[in-house]
Every structure is written in structure tokens, then in C-alpha cells.
Amino acid sequence: MSQRLNWNSHELTAGWQQGTKAFYYGLGLEDKDLAQPQVGIGVPLLDGNLCNQHAYELAGKIAEGCRDVGMLGFPFGVPAVSDNISQGHEGGNASLPSRNMIASGAEAVVSAHRYDALVGLHHCDKNGPGFAMALARLNVPGLIVGGGTIMPGSHHGRPVTILDVYDSQAAAGVGAISREEADQILRVACPGPGGCGIAASFNTWGIVLEALGLMLPESSSIPAIADVKRDECQRAGSAVRRLLEQGTRPRDILTERAFRNAARALAAAGGSTNGILHLLALAREAGVAFGLREIQAIMRQTPVLCDFAPRGKGTMVDLHELGGTPVLLKHLLDGGFLDGDALTVTGKTLAENLADARPLATEQQLIAPLDAPLKPHADIQICFGNLAPDGIVFKVSSLKETHFRGKAVCFEDPRAIVEAVNVGKIQPGSVIVLRQMGPVATGMPEVLVATAALATPTLEGKVAFVSDTRVSGVSHGAIGVHCSPEAAVGGPIALLQDGDPISFDLLEGTITVHISDDELAARRGAWQPPALRYPRGYLAEFASTVTQASEGCVPKAILDGSVIRTQ
């Protein structure tokens, strides 16, 4: 890379096509400004979502910080979908496609405007993954800034989160608590700006980004409303300028050791299954050979060390008060779970970043000692078998055993599961199968409404859930998702019938439908592909280009070599 910091933008500001400069003068820039590096600041704009409510404010602080160090920061918008507001209806189909839209939107803007660097803001579940994919695809210097976690609400003197909302609504549905109390929790659980405060998809990916080295230390754990979050954004420009001066690119950071660090941090934190999908996608974008088989080994070897909700009660605010994500990562580094030599966006190694992290307090309940983990292996495990030849991702935090056997009860609509639970049709020992919800079929929406319905006293830990779609990180129970191949393309999950015996063993990494090969072949011979019709153009476009979950649901062109990797 040239030592010229405006390595890309100078093609516009000093290139042969001088007409473009008219717009720069119209922005109030002077000739001296045109030699400054230009930084695109990706902003997920959605004022109607608490997670993103303050996004443009933080983008303005980042732009100010860029100006402070002799650069030009230009915020630009990308699509934003609330993973909470879109739950349980047709709008949920937009969630995963929005990740790919963010990646492509950021790629388009940064490449079209010849920006020298990219900063992406991570406010809701798909923002950070989308911008990380764009950084890997563009390979321009840059980093991701966390938008900040929400503060917990309070109900009768105890902290409550979005998890309590869904659990209390499910409890009210079966008469375990009053509807009045459930609605009281609903009104107070989300008191202001910030991403969901537990180890759900948003915070999982924040921790992962720090472990990967794409996010500055502590960025993922600072609350959205904190003054220090504004200070952090103001300082981001200095970090970007340093990356430009050093010539460090995202693919220098996104190595196999970085992905292994990320997977181990995800496992130890008790994070969301969505994190697995995004890691796979980012590895594909970065051209790193890192798949479900590699993740399977890491999940078996890494203990759960954090008692975040939904497995416990902790929030990211609790982690912030302990000293932030660096305290957790230093704990993992000391335990030998992380490779400290991995490069990060600070220009230093992960170990150097963590050298001054605050020691883990002894009088705390969030992070377990290395010699007394909450669980000897991850809550997330990967299984393969005749039901999921290309893999299925399990998250099992409430199942006492590592194996389960039950009879299939098949659905193709998550609301039908809620209704079946409410009338007592789902019994302990069942394997609830939800299909025709994969990336090609419907955009792979989250089905929290279904998994939350199973979190009742009579069913939790006593039933299993298997699907070709996704679940929110708020979900808990015995859950298997991302089943590949999906039903819509003829995966074995499409062939299941009510009453089929299904078993899985998490530590053996197997999942089996116990019917003969001849019976399975006969069913396949009789199977007809569903007639897929899409209610939205974006969904039809996504379905026509997307790979299966085992490949991270990236565009097919990323894998087939159609995209020329530059820089």
C-alpha cells in the first residue's frame, strides 16, 4: 500500500475528472481539504428502533474525531431492521437479508466514492456483521464501533430485560403468571437507547468483534447512554488514521487465528447461535477456510464462563461495571483459550491490548473462575447426520443431558407452535420440527415467538426444537437451528413425518432420524419441491442468490469466484 493516506480518494480529488470537485466545493471544502483522507461512516438509520435511535448522533461524533486528526468523515446510511419489532410476522423475513444489504450497501458507497477507510456502527443484530462483511470484501482500512448496550429496566425492584418480556408473555399464555404482571414487565423492560443488554445476537457479535480484532477494546460493553461512549466515538478517528499510516487492512486481521479467537469467545460467553452464522459468512468474505467442522471442535473444547442471560441473569452493563469486555478476554487469554499474537485494529496484538485490562474481581457472579466453569463445554454445539448432512447448530442451556431422543411433531408456521402449546398439544419428550423457514424459503427469519412458547415450566428442558431457520439470541431451551440443507431445497428435514424418532448427541456431534434408508429414499422419491412465491422483491432477490446456512448465507457469487478480490 502507498504511504499516501488518501490512497483511494485522491483518484477523485486529484484525478483526471476534475468536474467531480464541484460537489466538494459545494460542501464547503477548500483545496487544502481535498488532500485529506476520506472516511465513510456507515450508519444504520432507524429512529423507530431503540437500538439505532442514537446512531446518527454517534456518527457525528466519529466525523468530528476524523476532522480532529486531519481527515474528512462522511456518514452514510444503510438499511436497518429491528430484530425485535420484526418478530412474529412477515417482517421478520427482512432481518437476515438486511445483513447482506448492509454489506453490499457499504461496499457500494465506499467503492463508488473512493473512500480511504470505512467505520461501521454496530447498533442492532445485523449491523456489525454486515459492516464486517463489507470490510472483508472491500479490504479497505477500517473498524467497527459498538453503538452501546441498553440499560436494564426495573420491575418491583429487580432488573428486567427483553428476555423477561418474552418469558413473562409465554408464562401468561399458560396461566403461570397474570396477564397484568406480564404487561407491567413489557412496559418497563426497555427504558432507553441501546442494543438488547443480554448475551443475545447484538452483544454476542460485539464480543466477537473485539475478539476478532475489528473493534477497539471495550467498545462492545459501554452503555449507549454513557458519556464515555461519545468520547470513544470521538477517538475513533485517531485509530482509523493509525490504520492508514500503518497500511493495515482487514484481511491482515481476519486470519484463521482471529476466527478461532472469536469462536472461543462466543463459546465462553454463552452467546447466540446467530454468531455462528455470521462467523461463517465473514470467513467466506475474507477467504479464510473456517467452517462448521472447525467450530465443532472449538465448541467441545471451550467451557462456558459467563452467566449472562438467557442462561443466567447477567447483562452487558454488569460486564461494563467489571471493566468491560477486555476483562473477559484477558480472563480467556490467561486460561489459554485465546491466541494473543493476533493482530487488531489498534495496530497492536490482542495480548498487547489486554495487558492493562482490569483484574477480574473476585466478588462477582458474572464470570466464573477458570478452574470452576459453569459448564465444561459450550452451550452451542454442532451436529451432523442423516437429518442434517451439512450441519445443524444447537444451543442447549436448559437441557441437563447432552443427548435427547423424542418423536417429531412437525410444523411449517411458528404461530401454530404457540397455539399448540397453549392448548396442551405439545408434550414432554417431543421434538418440535419447524421447517420451510430457511434462507431460500423465507429469508431465514427468527422465530422467537415459537421458542419462547416452549419456555414454560412443563416443557423447558423436556422438549427439543429443530428447524432450518434462526432463533433470537433471547431464546433458551434445547434448540437446533440452521439445519442444512433446508427443506425448500430438499434437505432431509423436508421428509420428516409426525412420530418419527429423532435423537441427537451433542458431544458426539450427531443427529439422526431413526428410519431406514429405504424409507427415507422412498419419501425423497415422492417429495415435490414447494412452489415458492415471495411477498417482497427483496426476498425473491435474496433467495435467488443466497447460499445455505452452512456457508453463512452469503451471496453465491462470493463462493463461486465471480467476485474479483482487490487490494
UniProtKB/TrEMBL annotation:
InterPro entries on file: DHAD_IlvD/Edd (IPR050165), Dihydro-acid_dehy_C (IPR042096), DiOHA_6PGluconate_deHydtase_CS (IPR020558), ILV_EDD_C (IPR056740), ILV_EDD_N (IPR000581), IlvD/EDD_N (IPR037237)
GO biological process, one term: branched-chain amino acid biosynthetic process
Record carries keyword Magnesium: no
Keywords: Lyase
EC number from the UniProt entry: 4.2.1.9
Residues making up the signal peptide according to the UniProt record: none
A Pfam family hit: ILV_EDD_C
UniProt keyword annotation of Lyase present: yes
Leading EC class: lyase
Superkingdom of origin organism: Bacteria
Alphabetized Gene3D superfamilies for the sequence: IlvD/EDD C-terminal domain-like
Dihydroxy-acid/6-phosphogluconate dehydratase C-terminal domain: residues covered: 366-553
Residue stretches making up the Dihydroxy-acid/6-phosphogluconate dehydratase N-terminal domain: 36-353
Gene Ontology terms for molecular function: dihydroxy-acid dehydratase activity
Recorded family membership: Belongs to the IlvD/Edd family.
PANTHER family named in the record: DIHYDROXY-ACID DEHYDRATASE DAD, DIHYDROXY-ACID DEHYDRATASE, MITOCHONDRIAL
Official protein name in the record: Dihydroxy-acid dehydratase
Species the sequence originates in: Kolteria novifilia
Name of the gene encoding the protein in the UniProt record: ilvD_1
